[in-house]
Fold this sequence. Notes:
Elements: H1 4-10, H2 15-27, E1 45-54, E2 58-65, E3 69-76, E4 86-93, H3 96-108, E5 129-134, E6 137-142, H4 150-161, H5 163-167, E7 170-176, H6 189-193
Antiparallel strand pairs: 1-2, 1-5, 2-3, 3-4, 4-7, 5-6
Helix pairs in contact: 1-2, 3-4
Amino acid sequence: MLSRRQLLHSSMKYPLAQALLCLLAFCGCTSLTGGHGMDPRSAEIEEGLLLDVQGLFGGWDVWVGAQGDAYSRSVTPPDRGQHGLQEVRYKFALSAEERAALFDLIRKNDFFNIIMRERPGIPDEARPAIWVKTASGSRLVSKWAGVENEDFDAIWAFLLNLTPSGEKDTELYRGDFDWQWQPDGFTERELLLKQIPY
Length: 198
């Protein structure tokens, strides 16, 4: 299988390679400048979001702003006497080191060029999604929980590991889970959820 670089160099010589390169770009599977025409090396990350709440078992959502302002929420099944999923929301701040590590991880793992292997979901399988916004655009990548992808999984694990920081800081709410809630100043969560293929 030809790499992206090999396709680029051979596209001018070989019509088949040129056609394949065009097909990949049209399908949104890859980009030579960073997903969707963006070069993540030259764009500061303005916003990051992890969406990883499953409708039966719960999970985590994490929001990270450009200045290190962050929010997380833990969603869990109900205890006895409760009805429906329960959630706790936190507000906290990332240190300069944590911000730098996250941004470096997104670049190092080539987030804007991740190609995800797709398959049908298993009943009740979670489908985490990561969304990153830069000055030149944005991209959302999601996968079924049982699908392994080293680049995605590294960023996902880092964002999940930020959540204990929230538990040490400001608790904003504890009670029934609200699918519609999100912190002010961040991109609308519902618009992003509509982009996730199920």
